[in-house]
Amino acid sequence: MASRTRTNIDSKPTSSSSSVLGAEATADLNALREFVALADTGSFSRAARDLATTPATISKRLTRLEEELGVHLVRRTTRQFGLTEAGQVLYERARQILGAIHQTEHLLRSFGKTPCGRLRVSVPLYTGIMHVSPLLPEFLSIHPDLQVELVLENRIVDIVNEGYDIAIRVGGADQTSPTLSRLRLVKDRSVVCGAPSYFEKNGRPRSPFDLEEHNLLRHSGLPRWPFRVNEELVIVDAGKALVSNDAFSLRDAALRGTGLAYLSRYIVQTHLERGELVEVLSEYSTHEVSIDAVYSPSRYNAAKIRSFIDFLAEQLPKRLG
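That's the LysR family transcriptional regulator sequence above. Prediction below.
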């Protein structure tokens, strides 16, 4: 073990530096490893055996290290081996440095094999609540070494500068940076739907042409509704009752019987199943919406990112199928 005897620093005249591992020091990791092994064993021969090298190699590297640092690190006599005060400082710091390097190397190796660490994901509010959050318990049970930070907000985040690993995007309308990759997780069709109370008052449209007689709730991103009639594309101008950039406001208006909305099925699926909304014109609808994962391609090899994207690509179609 390293000697704990403290002696005065014996500065060598060959260097003006007196700082241990200061700006002028050029000690490499091999020199630090050999010095720590030498301090731990108290013997050049035992340190050389542990490191599969020779006592002469360790001695030469120690001499060079002392010259670079400008201090004596070891006191050697025929009967005693010990560290100087500077050597004791270097020994303690070097053990910390080498320990941190070892932990970092272990962590980085695990990134390519086992998902671990923190995974920061941006998801639109409703998509996160309805479809991503319910999947997390299963995902975390599969990958117990992962911590997921799910941020729910309706805005386009800057993945790189805001520290996200993945962003879930709906609709594909935003311009993805050329430095990012985009992978489609699931494609969902849009549906025209309304509340039973609305249909009781206004009747049901039998074809897209009948929509001219109805109150239409339009998303600002879809000012014209596309349909296919007898293999021909028919476009309906929408927006006689309400225009909004928030699909959930349109859904809520439809639930209150205000009019007909043309929305992605994943937004209204629960209400359709409960009978709170009723789909019409299903045989004519052509509009589709995708749910995509956006990420940095340089980081995709990280096991945590790859595993989450693969998991969503498998599970989301089951929820929306």
